[in-house]
Amino acid sequence: MPVVNELIRSEVDGTISFGNFKLDAKSKVADFEHCGDSYKVKTFKEITKLERNGLFVYESVPGTAVNNMKITEKGVEFTVYGDADAQITLELEDSAEYEISVNGENAGKMKTNLGGKLIFSVDLSEENAVEVVVVKL
After folding, report:
1. Is 104 left (phi over 0), alpha (psi -120 to 50) or beta?
2. Domain count of the chain?
3. Residue 48, exposed/middle/buried by CB under 10 A (0-12, 13-18, 19+)?
4. pLDDT tens digits, residue range 85-109?
5. Which of 5, 6, 16, 46 is the most buried (most CB within 10 A)?
């Protein structure tokens, strides 16, 4: 099962997994420590949101489950699961250009807005994982 039943967890490889799109009621975990940072996750079938040290990191509508999220200076990569197609918003560097790859295929280049938001959609079904890689150009 791709959902994260404990809502958020640290993985052995240093990445983080979070989200449960199967929940009917909003659930959250605050003050989750991972690699020196404090994370907060809110998740259920309608939305999944992740914050790090009080700052926005990830949001999906509807809710999703994210596995093995790795955030670096060059970008972010993760595997995402969900019941339906989702709009994903990431907080990255302001006014920077990024290349997005979905399941190894180039999904194009996008520039973040002044607030650093990058918004894109992914086609999801519960049976299939979608690998997302966002790299700063």
Report:
1. left
2. 1
3. buried
4. 999 999 999 999 999 999 999 999 9
5. 16
Average of per-residue pLDDT across 16-35: 96
Transcribe 41-97 into DSSP letters: EEEETTEEEEEETTEEEEEEES--EEEEEEEETTEEEEEEE-SS-EEEEEE--TT-E
Residues 6+ apart with CB under 8 A from 100: 106, 107, 108, 109, 110, 118, 120, 132, 133, 134
Instruction: Estimate to the nearest angstrom the gap between the alpha carbon of 61 and the chain centroid.
Output: 11
> What's 3's DSSP letter?
S
Does residue 1 sit within a domain?
no
Tokens standing for residue 37:
């940072």
